[in-house]
Amino acid sequence: MPKTQPKNATVSELTGLHLYHAGWSNCSMRVRMTLEEKSLAWTSHHLNTRVGEHITPEYFGINPKGLVPVLVHDGVVWTESVDIIRYLDDTYPEPRLMPSDKRQQAELSDWMCLASDIHVTAIKTYIYSSRPKNASRKTLDELERYRKLQTNEELLAFHAKCSSHEGISAAERASAEQLIHDAFSKLDARLARSPWLVGERFTLADITWIPLHYTLERARFSLQDYSNVGNWAQAIAARPSFKRAVLDWFDGPGEAETVTIVPPGT
C-alpha cells in the first residue's frame, strides 16, 4: 500500500515533505538516508514507538497498519519504506539513486523484495527476541488499544506472540537467524564482485540494506563471517548521510516532536 487515502484529514493540509518516523526503526533509516542523500529539507514528526506513541486513532488514521515511516508530500500520504524511497528518487532525481540500466533496475527490485520478505519473519523476530522479555511486551492497555486499531493479521499475530508469556520460541529465533544468514551470504557473494549491491555505484539497494546491517549489529547478531559485507558497511558509514540519518537518530528524541530538518549549507 505505497500510496493511501488517510482517514486523518489533518495531514492533507501539510505542505512540503513531512516524515513520521522512529529513531531506531530500520525502515525509517532508509527514508532519512534518501532524504539526506538528496539534500532535501523535511519536517520530522518523531514517534517514540517504544512507549506506544504510534498506537493512537490519529496515527492509524494516517497509516492503517500503524507502522513507521510515513511520508506526507504536499498532503499525499506514502507508506512502506521501499515505496517511499522509490517515490523520492523519481520525484527528486538528483542525485539519481536508481540505475538507468533495465537489468540493474530488476536487480535492485530483487534486493528490495528480499529485504521486505524477511522483515517480520527474520529481522523483526530476531531483534524482538533479543530484547529482555518484558521490553518486547506491550502493556495490557497498549495491547488492547493495538487490537482495536490493527487489522493486519500478520502484525496482530506477531505482537500477540511477543506479548504472550512464552514469547518468541527458540525454534522461531533459530529460523530467523538462518534466514538472516542466508540473506547476508547472498550480499557477501554479490559484494565480492563489486563494492555496491547493484552496478558500480551507491544506489537505493544499499540504502535498503544498510539499516538492517546496523540494527542487527546493535542487537549483537554476528556478521563477522561476511568480510565483503563488513567492507561495504564501513564505506557507507563514512557517508555524511549515514551519520545524519542513522547515528544521530538511533537513540532518538525521547518524545514525539516536530522539527524542520534543513540540509547543511542551505
Task: Describe this structure as you would to a colleague.
The chain has 266 residues and is α+β, with helices and mostly antiparallel strands. The chain folds into 2 domains: 3-96 and 246-261, Glutaredoxin (3-Layer(aba) Sandwich); 102-201 and 203-238, Glutathione S-transferase Yfyf (Class Pi), Chain A, domain 2 (Up-down Bundle). The protein has helices spanning 26-37, 57-60, 81-91, 102-117, 119-130, 133-136, 140-149, 153-163, 170-191, 204-218, 227-237, 240-247; strands spanning 3-4, 17-21, 42-46, 70-73, 76-79, 257-261. A 6-stranded mixed beta sheet has the order 1-5-4-2-3-6, with helices on one face. The longest helix has 22 residues, at 170-191. The radius of gyration is 18 Å and the shape is globular.
Features:
single chain; globular; six-stranded mixed sheet; alpha+beta; Glutathione S-transferase Yfyf (Class Pi), Chain A, domain 2; 9% strand; 2 domains; 12 helices; 266 residues; Glutaredoxin
